[in-house]
């Protein structure tokens, strides 16, 4: 891939960076990233990856734009209400940057379809809102050997981590099993500060760009915790667990699991 | 003995909204019991019926996950910072 004059100008402010340069930009344009959940996290992730010129962006979401989304899902506008999120996002993102090919997957990931969906991408970004999806995505990425950029938030606090299967711990090394239904309130019940979702999403976007560019130190083996009220970050160490049910020495999970959807109002959709 | 304990958002109802509380203990087990004394109900959120840490909540002493130390026998000393960190799921909604 050779950058054309317009691309050199469009991306000049990041091409200028010594760790990126023209070669890095070409790498970005050749990259294929899947964003699962185009909501509070997925919106800023998709917007910044589009701006940076990530060449292929897959978007997975089965929802439509709702008015309660707009305070934090910043790629949607009031006139997108009722439209499929992936379709509205595609229009917006391709308008932002025509270099980016947006592929829409208007579906909910299940054990039956996830491997086929993630297969064509280099990196998966988890912006989902429920535990069944998070564990499914973690397990699928471990089994497929795909890097996964995790992010989650709750009220005023968020978490992010990068999972590089084979090189570091996975989500189950940290939390081996999802909480039982009702043990942890969902965002629908709990509320969230919109800008917090942006902070966590942009940590995910930044880590994704670092993975593509192979620069810096990825957030592997460490969970970053952000508290917006005291405005501070903490990191805790996440060791690889040799007893991890999916990436440990004797894995007990060798097939994908569909946990019951228990996240409040949402019912599992048929494909 | 005073140990700072970071309380995550989902458990702050039990600590009357406090993000950080003080506890006195020499190990993790004692810490959980001390928290329970001051904030009844919190132990049940952190531990299962057998008193073992739940699989979706971790306790870190100065950034180290106690599961990879000595579990609830991990010692804690004055000035240590303990974080209780649960799995959280919010993202798209």
Automatic annotation (TrEMBL), chain B:
One Pfam family hit: ThiS
Top-rank taxon: Bacteria
InterPro entries: Beta-grasp_dom_sf, Mopterin_synth/thiamin_S_b, Sulfur_Carrier/Prot_Modifier, ThiS/MoaD-like
Name under which the protein is recorded: Molybdopterin synthase sulfur carrier subunit
Natural source organism: candidate division WOR-1 bacterium RIFCSPLOWO2_02_FULL_46_20
